[in-house]
Amino acid sequence: MTAGRAVPANGEGAISIGNRSLSFLQVGDPTGPLVLHNHGGPSSRLEARLFEFSARELGLRLVCVDRPGQGRSDPHPDRSFASWAADLEAIADAHRAETFAVTGWSGGGPWALAAAAYLDPVRLVHVTSIAGASYGAFGRNWAAEDLSRADALGGFLALHFRPGFQLMYELLDIAATHFPERYKQELLKLSGPADLEVLADEHVLNVIVGAGRECFRQGAEGLVIDARLLYQEWPFDVAAIRRPVHLWQGSADTYVPEAVNRPLGERMPGAVWHEVTDGGHFIAVSHADAILAIAAQDLAGPARADAPG
Q: What is the CATH number of domain 11-306?
């Protein structure tokens, strides 16, 4: 791994891994312990702006990285869950972090779970998945019956008719890139009462729309590869993950229903289940303080253990 020379105190940056470049946005306390956040989909590194205040208040250095082919990160067509876990560790290396935490929201949740499956828990001291798109956790598109009609159809196309799946995301690309107001209105239309309360904050809404638009900077292909991997049967067994993994879920989530993630909480030995009663998909924003406070506590653990006396 070759790290980019300048990892900024805060703000935009890039890290080189072999002949690939991964772009990121860093917020919070630039001297604090490291949290690597996996953005949702469609989203990008700009999602970090949603957690800037919480990270700063908790003394955390939160870094959100564009996954390959999204935002400004180079494509990596042959990537896998294991390769992304290795990328996350390389990013931690570049930030000179002896220990670090990983979080993931929505389409980023499975990538956080992959880190839990593949990385050493001695170094990766905290993992959180928030309303994770766990569509391949127990087989190909296993949760189709619990998804919205559009998401279930997306899973079917991802597995059986890639051109149709590609078209779905290309149309989303057009909407996000060229018709952001319409994209915003569609987001609001799909949201339940709890999410509309969160999205009433114009800053939050604009960050989410802007992060979605940035996802398609290079077109839809990066997101297509990302999403297809989520719908396919995952190569790791969640039932074999024994380290603690925090699973956050809103009981009224209309994007990723509770029925998608409840089985993970039941079958993953290390699962710590956090249900937000009447909460929606955007609990990542409304409960950011509580979510990141647990990460901060786990990151402080090794420091306390190493302290004299």
A: 3.40.50.1820
